[in-house]
Amino acid sequence: MAAKYSVKFFWIIKVMVYVFKILGLATFSVENFDNSICTWAVDSSNLGLAYNILLSIALSILTAVSFWKSVSMNYDNKSSLTAIHDAVLGLSVSCTAWVVIVSWAFKQSKAVDIANKMLLLNFYVTSKKERSKKRTFVTVCLYVTINACFWIYEYIQEIFRPTVPTLVFIYFTVPYFIVSSFMVEYCMVVRLIIKEFEKVNEILSDYDDFRTNLYPRTQFLNYSNLEAFFSPNNSQLIMLQSVHKIRTMLFEISSDISDFFSFPILLCIGTSFYAILTHVYYLITPFVAPNAVFSLPLFLSTVLLIIVIAYPIVLLVYNTEQAMYKAKLSSRVVHELLSKTTKPEIKSELTEFSLRILHEELNFTAYGFFRLDFTLLHSMLAALVTYLVILVQYSG
């Protein structure tokens, strides 16, 4: 099923897709069927698959060439412990980026299926609140822009004040830029899911009184035959059943998204945590290690790098928490509607809807190891302090 959007919106989306394509994070192609009102859909691309395979090979070559240079390079406050950190961090970031690229290559069909389902869902339910649409679009663009600006600043800073050999700098930053962009991409997709849950909740909230023949103010298309039913002949029960089906479809899409990103995001978060731990240790080394040299520019640069690494994790946790909250909010709205209606057929449908929501608990996890919510940040902070104490004692 294709979706209709303005030409301007279509080309903005296409540019963003090509940016992610360069990083190996969008192997599919976007097809346009009409030039006036863009009717478009997502399709598999053999060229994207081949590009990702070549990119993974190039990343492997970069790792093989740069690894020993990264281990043998000299810098202030270097020790055997920091040398081990450099080796482990470099390999873990490269391996994580490699897994992300390969995952996108061989799970392309699943990504295409998810993308087309989201387009289809957006075609079924379209909010009339244009400001809300624009706000969502601006938000996802900001996610990408902020992440890109962080890394552009890092590259500019290295150009004007080099601290490590160029090849080593590329070895550490390019793979991690892919990793952070992958997490930001996940944030963007979850943000779109949040918007869809808000639409469903908006439709349900518009049922103020079942004793009247009021219909939702949101433009709503029939799930089964795609016919808009704003006419008085269409019953509230049919509309409620259609909302029920769309809410179920939205939950299934959300679960597919969680499964698609699940294993790579586990590696991304693990690598990010180790990178933060390593750089925080570098940060405090001048204050805890004997004969260590303190440099203010290096200190500030390290603080900024920690922020750059932590940014996509915090962003991802915030968005998944919001998505889970919006999904649970549907249950509250349905319960409120149950207390308002006296019609047996409406009450029966709402009861079934409520039971379905009760069994459809939305969770975003990292391959089942932990949930992507605010408790993850608490756990990471506690683990960070624990490991820092161990590292400081070991260095002492």
TrEMBL record:
Membrane topology type: Multi-pass membrane protein
Purpose of the protein: Gustatory receptor which mediates acceptance or avoidance behavior, depending on its substrates.
UniProt keyword annotations, A-Z: Cell membrane, Membrane, Receptor, Transducer, Transmembrane, Transmembrane helix
Name used for this protein in its record: Gustatory receptor
Pfam families, per the entry: 7tm_7
Family indicated by similarity: Belongs to the insect chemoreceptor superfamily. Gustatory receptor (GR) family.
Predominant place of localization: membrane
Presence of keyword Cell membrane: yes
Localization of this protein: Cell membrane
Organism: Neodiprion lecontei (Redheaded pine sawfly)
Spans traversing the lipid bilayer: 6-28, 49-68, 88-106, 137-156, 168-194, 260-284, 296-318, 374-394
Entry annotated with the keyword Ribonucleoprotein: no
